[in-house]
Automatic annotation (TrEMBL):
Cell compartment(s), UniProt: Cell membrane; Membrane
Organism (species): Nocardioides islandensis
Protein name per the record: histidine kinase
The organism's taxonomic lineage, starting at the top: Bacteria, Bacillati, Actinomycetota, Actinomycetes, Propionibacteriales
Histidine kinase domain residues: 618-832
Domain of life according to the entry: Bacteria
Catalytic activity field: ATP + protein L-histidine = ADP + protein N-phospho-L-histidine
Pfam families according to UniProt: DUF4118, HATPase_c, HisKA, KdpD, Usp
Length: 854
């Protein structure tokens, strides 16, 4: 009867060939040397000699042979391993599908039986076989993975070790024949083992392993009741209230998380348990969408004590940083209590707290207005306070008259005037000072209960009281004015700074600038109008456009023949300066657009001039060479008398003339095609084209004298949308170029494969290659990079190949050939379902002879 469950160790590979089985066998030898009873249940070497050598010295359980559809297959003998009952069993390829007739359908189910029997298992699996990433891998590589293993099975392993290798190192390992036989290397490098595929698979493996490690860390913290923060991975929590500052906080927190090597972003909103929270649910919904669009997660927790709830959530999530917004409470409220930010900072412990400032009284929807005093609400509050303080103070001081003199009474009324001035500004304070002086005169200045003042000193004191009250009120009002002016100046500076970046843009920047004008001044539309031949034309607009300046409430000149028309409301005088700055910037952007358009028109002319100069040079040398050779051969035939040349000599001269004229015809054809491409007059007829047939024709076009070319084009590839004649020219040019630079003992190789909705044709040579910094130079016309033979062409082959490919809607890009050389990759779209279903098309595909042509 089985005892405790065995332990599972998994070697997770980023891709085939990274060394999972090699590492597993190495671990087996180390355990065997320590005396562990270990056997090989099943190991697949794939013919790799270094892996096979590691099997020596280990006990191998013989495999079980099964028959299926007339063929013999070998599988792990599960019964034999269970009967042997070792301490540890090696079982390779966890995702393998067993041959029908086996006890279990999948090998991972065999492993489960071994673990249940108390046997420790060491196994291997590649990331592409994990169920959760199976569809992602297919999108990346274009290869469906039919053998998968549930993630839960792998995550349940006691140990997971990642076998990783850079894409370049793995491709070199393939090129050296350490993974697949030499005849399969080129096809593997051109298909599954592309550098981009391997990099993506590597990132998938790293992310999956990181998540697994993070789960293990969280489980350990829970099991050991650890509440303190462990900064193993940055986790940034942003607190949201549903207020207008939320988006600013989210973006700030996202930047913090991004700078922390891709840390996690979590947003949390603390709702009151009584359901009376004042947060805007619409704003919270928009902020949640923003968080999720930035790759974060949104959470909502209940709690009447907001600081405690925030910190509890942050510690539960092992957060390292907490982002809060600056308080929107009044000065008085902040003076009476520390507030959420203060409490969080006090109790945060080892969690870093960021308090982010935010400005929501700035430019949206309108700029702050300077009207000479405090706001209307503040003035009303001042009048209200005066209406309460003056009667209250009079009622309190009248009974205390015998104990206080007039000076004390004046000082107390002056204090009331200062308080009203601080709250309400100049007007309420002046009213308070005047009414206060009247109350002092009537109730506290002899003779009492009359407005008559007997003593001159008392008259002077009351006058000074009024003057001091007015002066204090003026100081408070001036401070408020300066604060408003400073706020507006800062807002204008921020706006102008933002505009400075827009000057470098084009039409999109102009539209964005007009949208900013519309939002800044709370308008319904902003339009740039240009006058041409007496009529107005709208160049760009934000909101409903204006047809002419007369339709707008405000129009500002923006340059030569330009007007910025603003509609929605009449702007005040204080806004005109900033609107003028906007208009000036609009004029600069329009001028840049005009200059860009003029430069774009001049570019083809400059290219044509360059082409004309190069063409003249080519005509003067490259075209002249074959023409001179043909001329010399024909002249020799004419000058020598009849019967003076042998038949062999005549044939040699005629052959030389024929070859020279053929070469001249090809050069002229290339020049004509290049000129058509430059002029945009090339006729392209796109239709479904089968790559295997086209490659076969291209090989025939190379002629019998060309070196052999190895071709590996599957016959089940879908047709591509291309012009058959032009695509054949492209492949012939690429093959000719590859033959020119390939050494005699390393023939070029052409292959094709499907990647998503495109088919890639690769022409591979093993020549000296070209540095990546000079890849683009080889596609310039009349360039022969590193070509010392000036008699073979005018340097149009690759330039023409790229031009023809792009004219058909495809791309032509170079790649480095692993082991040395250059690979040219032609990528073309696959025919859509409607095209592929054309009559007779599928019959043609079925009729194509299988196998590669060479």
């Amino acid at each position: 009867m089985a005892g405790k469950r065995g332990r599972l160790r998994v070697y997770l590979g980023a891709a085939p060939g990274v060394g999972k089985t090699f590492s597993m066998l190495g671990e087996a030898h180390r355990r065997a040397e320590r005396g562990t009873d270990i056997v090989v249940g099943f190991v697949e070497t794939h013919g790799r000699p270094h892996t096979a050598e590691l099997l020596e010295g280990l006990e191998v359980i013989p495999r079980r042979t099964l028959s299926h559809r007339g063929a013999q297959f070998e599988e792990m003998d599960l019964d034999a391993v269970l009967a042997r009952r070792p301490s540890v069993a090696l079982v390779d390829e966890m995702a393998h599908t067993n041959v029908p007739g086996s006890r279990n359908a999948k090998r991972w189910q065999d492993i489960e039986e071994l673990l249940a029997a108390g046997i420790d298992v060491i196994t291997t699996v590649n990331v592409q076989h994990l169920e959760s990433v199976n569809d992602v891998v297919e999108k990346i590589t274009g290869v469906p993975q039919r053998e998968t293993v549930p993630d839960a099975v792998v995550r349940a392993a006691d140990q997971i070790e990642l076998e990783d290798m850079t894409a370049e190192a793995l491709r070199r390992r393939l090129a050296h024949g350490n993974v697949y036989p030499s005849e399969k290397v080129d096809a593997a490098l051109s298909n599954y083992f592309r550098a981009g595929n391997l990099t993506a698979l590597r990132e998938l493996a790293l992310l999956w392993t990181a998540d697994r490690v993070d789960e293990a860390l969280q489980l350990y913290r829970e099991q050991h009741d650890i509440t303190s923060t462990w900064e193993a991975r940055e986790r940034v929590v942003v607190a949201l209230t549903g207020g207008p500052e939320g988006e600013t906080l989210i973006r700030r927190a996202a930047r913090v998380a991004t700078r922390a090597s891709g840390g996690d972003l979590l947003a949390v909103h603390v709702a009151r348990s009584d359901g009376l929270a004042g947060a805007s649910q619409g704003a919270l919904a928009r902020q949640r969408q923003l968080v999720e669009s930035l790759g974060g997660s949104y959470h909502q927790v209940l709690g009447d004590d907001v600081p405690e709830a925030l910190l509890s959530f942050a510690r539960a999530e092992n957060a390292t940083q907490l982002v809060l917004g600056e308080s929107r409470r009044s000065i008085l409220s902040r003076a009476l209590s520390r507030g959420t930010a203060g409490e969080v900072i006090r109790q945060s412990g080892d969690i870093d707290v960021h308090v982010v400032t935010h400005h929501h009284t700035g430019l949206v929807p309108t700029l702050p207005r300077v009207r000479g005093s405090l706001s209307r609400l503040r003035r009303l509050q001042g009048f209200g306070l005066a209406a309460v303080l003056l009667p209250l103070m009079t009622a309190v001081l009248v009974p205390a008259g015998p104990q206080l003199n007039l000076v004390s009474d004046m000082l107390l009324f002056l204090l009331a005037t200062v308080v009203v001035a601080i709250v309400g500004g100049l007007a309420p304070a002046m009213v308070t000072a005047v009414l206060g002086s009247l109350l002092l005169n009537y109730f506290f200045t002899p003779p009492l209960h009359t407005l008559t003042i007997r003593d001159t000193n008392n008259s002077l004191a009351l006058l000074v009281f009024i003057v001091v009250g007015i002066l204090v009120s003026s100081v408070v009002d001036m401070a408020a004015r300066r604060t408003r002016e400073a706020s507006r100046a800062a807002a204008e500076a921020r706006t102008l700074a933002n505009l400075a970046g827009s000057v470098l843009g084009g039409e999109e920047a102009l539209t964005s600038m007009l949208e900013r004008v519309r939002e800044t001044f709370a308008l319904t539309s902003a339009t740039v109008l240009q006058k041409e031949d007496g009529d107005w034309m709208a160049l760009a607009h934000a909101g409903p456009p204006c047809a002419r300046p007369g339709e707008a409430e405000t129009d500002v000149p923006a340059g030569d023949g330009l007007v910025l028309a603003l509609k929605g409301r009449i702007l005040e005088a204080e806004d005109q300066r900033l609107v003028g700055a906007f208009a000036a910037q609009v004029g600069v952007v329009v001028d840049r657009i005009r200059l860009s358009a003029a430069a774009a028109e001049a570019a083809p002319l400059a290219a044509a001039n360059q082409m004309r100069t190069a063409l003249l040079a080519a005509v003067g040398h490259d075209l002249r060479t074959p023409l001179a050779a043909a001329k010399a051969a024909v002249s020799s035939l004419l000058m020598v008398g009849e019967g003076m040349l042998s038949a062999e000599d005549r044939r040699e001269l005629l052959t030389a003339a024929d070859e020279s004229l053929d070469r001249l015809a090809k050069l002229v054809d290339n020049l004509l095609d290049m000129s058509r491409l430059q002029a945009g007059a090339l006729t392209v007829t796109v239709q479904p084209t089968f790559v295997d047939e086209l490659v076969a024709r291209s090989l025939d076009d190379l002629g019998d004298d060309a070196l052999p070319v190895r071709a590996d084009v599957p016959d089940d590839l879908p047709p591509v949308l291309a012009d058959p004649g032009l695509l054949e020219r492209v492949v012939v040019n690429l093959l000719s170029n590859a033959l020119r630079y390939s050494p005699f003992d390393a023939t070029p190789h052409v292959t094709a494969s499907r990647l998503d909705e495109r088919v890639e044709i690769r022409v591979v040579d093993r020549g000296p290659g070209i540095p990546s910094s000079e890849w683009e130079a080889v596609f310039r016309p009349f360039q022969r990079l590193g070509d010392t033979d000036n008699t073979t062409g005018v340097g149009l082959g690759l330039a023409l190949a790229r031009g023809l490919t792009e004219a058909m809607g495809g791309t032509l890009e170079p790649e480095e050939t692993p082991g040395g050389g250059l690979t040219m990759v032609v990528s073309l779209p696959v025919g859509d379902d409607q095209t592929m279903g054309a009559p007779g098309l599928r019959e043609r595909q079925a009729a194509v002879a299988p196998g590669a042509r060479s």
